Amino acid sequence: MIRVPVLEIGGTHVTAALVDTATGLPVPRSVVRRPVAAGAGATELLDSFAEAARHLAAPGGARWGVALPGPFDYAAGIGRYRGIGKFESLHGVDVGTELRARLPRPSAVSFLNDADAFAVGEYHSGAAERRARAVCLTLGTGVGSSFLQDGRPVTDGPTVPPEGRAHRITVDGLPLEEVVSRRAIRARYARSAGLDARTEGPDVGALADLARGGDPHAAAAITGCFTALGRALAPWCAAFGPDVMVVGGSMAASWDLIGPALRSGLTAAGAAGPDARTTVSAMGLSPALRPDAALIGAAHWALGHPARAVTPPADAHRAHRADRP
């Protein structure tokens, strides 16, 4: 039995856990979740990641798996966060070297995009289990995505969006997340309900409750946004040919509303032509089965995708330099 230490880093939290290779699941009571201030300096951020990790009984010389959002050079372990409103202080920082100095006796650190980690976890122990091709989405603040073939992310080629990322798609001439995101759904409701332009609508969970209670503006906001998401994804599903689409993230809690709207958009008559409609009609559509999928995916990635020793590029710098003005 091998216990793989992993970190899942998000914009508001970091989760650490040991994943048991015998069961393929996090070890009971090993999961530690801590808050993260995404706008903090590099040293504070890196220390907060390591603080969660120090609560694990990680074996010496273990290979760590780390799932975190992009933009990030996952092979080199270098942050590329500029102009995106989070983790800006990690731009150009050799995060791999900094974590290896802070984690308890690691042998190496393997990095993976957080949406890819979710997808790999669902492939090994969830709704995409052993499917030849799967499209996996995470719906939170924005739209994360992973196009998997035999459990490996596909990030280039004519059958996937640029870098395999759905947020690179446009909808009616707009970036996808201007149409489908937490902010976009709230704004759509506010416009429909006639709220002051400076007033944010209720959050997505509250809008889902309103929609279930018969509020037409809330129902229209959710249906409109996720129908648009389906229309945007339909041509790529036709090209990639997935067996299943798996949807996770905080918004998936409202699957009773999101699922039908997404399916409607995927199969809409004008979405992408008859070939796309045939493909997506045969494709399974499912909410994620595992809330811990990203932890599981990061562990499998660490075991099956060895980290490489790399020389940081010229613009990489240590965390203490990133904190300087």
Q: Return the CATH architecture of the largest domain.
A: 2-Layer Sandwich
Protein structure class: alpha/beta
Main sheet summary: 6 strands, mixed
Q: Low-confidence parts, pLDDT < 50 over ≥5 residues? A: 307-325
Q: What is the approximate shape?
A: globular
State the share of residues found in helices, binned by percent.
25-40%
Residue share in β-strands:
15-25%
According to CATH, the homologous superfamily of the largest domain is ATPase, nucleotide binding domain
Radius of gyration: 20 Å
User: What is the count of distinct domains?
Assistant: 2
Q: In angstroms, what separates the terminal alpha carbons?
A: 47 Å
H/E series, N to C? EEEEHEEEHEHEEEEEHHHHEHHEHH
Individual helix count: 11
Mean pLDDT: 88
Descriptive overview:
With 325 residues, the protein is an alpha/beta fold. It folds into 2 domains: 3-117 and 294-320, ATPase, nucleotide binding domain (Nucleotidyltransferase, domain 5, 2-Layer Sandwich); 129-289, Nucleotidyltransferase, domain 5 (2-Layer Sandwich), CATH 3.30.420.40. Helices cover 36% and strands 21% of the residues. It is built from 11 helices and 15 strands. It has helices at 42-53, 95-102, 114-125, 176-179, 182-192, 204-212, 216-240, 255-266, 274-282, 293-304, 319-322; strands spanning 3-9, 13-20, 25-26, 32-35, 62-68, 72-73, 78-79, 106-113, 133-139, 143-149, 152-153, 170-171, 174-175, 244-248, 284-287. The strands form 4 sheets. Strands 1, 2, 3, 4, 5 and 8 form a 6-stranded mixed beta sheet that branches. A hairpin with a 2-residue loop joins strand 10 and strand 11 (152-153). Helix 1 (42-53) packs across helix 2 (95-102), helix 7 (216-240) packs across helix 8 and helix 7 (216-240) crosses helix 9. The protein is globular and about 55 Å long. The model is unreliable at 307-325 (pLDDT under 50).
